Amino acid sequence: MKNLITGGAGFIGFHLAGRLLDLGQEVTIVDNFFRSDKDKEFQRLIKRPGTRFIEADLTDSSQWSKLGYGYDHVYHLAAVNGTELFYKIPHEVLRINILSTFNAIEWFRTKNPKGKILFTSSNEIYAGAREAFNDLPIPTTETVPAVIPDITNPRWSYAGSKLVGEQVFLHYGKHYGLRTVVVRPHNFYGPRAGHHHVIPQLIDRVLKKTDPFPVYGYYDKRSYCYIDDAVEAMRLVMESDKTDGQIYHIGSHEERKVNNLVECIFMAMEWKPKELQINPSPAGSVKRRLPDISKIKLATGWEPRTSFEEGLRRTIEWYKQNSL
User: Is 0.90 topped by the overall pTM?
Assistant: First the structure.
């Protein structure tokens, strides 16, 4: 099996590549390191047998010729993510995400039409429905309307780019007879996830013994999916004929409050601050996120297998060894 992963140096792409290599498959990784690092783990990954690495700017259509063709599976993960960047450079979030997506599907249509291609969307597309209508079914199915409540707010640049991407992949697939599939990740966590998401941020604060200890969205609820389970779901979706032209949630069916997450981290790391500094959720956050994952289970048999406690333990151990 021959695979291509765009954005393969990032959190999800790195773990996906490792999983595919463990199964004896070939993997070509493409990245330009806009949001990822050439760290030691990535250097070890690209030295593994069956791995090829290409550095390229995928917003430039001419650079896609570097990639070649003949891939069985193409995972299009490349995108600018990170809430801070949505506000700082929304124009670049839109430009990079939308251009690279159009280039991906055009390259696939003309150079690699016999394979299957996956688009990685986001649970961010649901945040607007909650803000606009103060209502969102919980657990949330793939059929819930996706809403951009205020196009003038830079917050929605990322969600907007993902909604465009979903339509591009699904409608190109239908019109040209291409094998496409869309997945919507829900709060993946694990080793090497960077330092800008909630679990790594909390772990970093404990390692630094921050006191008072700031916590945002203390009573919000989330589900967290360990990265090993997440990339296995992506692999199974790509290998199934039943999933062509469909949209699937990938996430956990277990919901927990942020305050419970914080206490779990304190307990696992055997340290607790004297004072908690409870702050409101970041602007644009929703109070609850819980995906309905029955559709992907029915199609592939997948469901998360790593307990939250075990996934958190592995994540903490990695960050202890790789702290800032």
Answer: yes
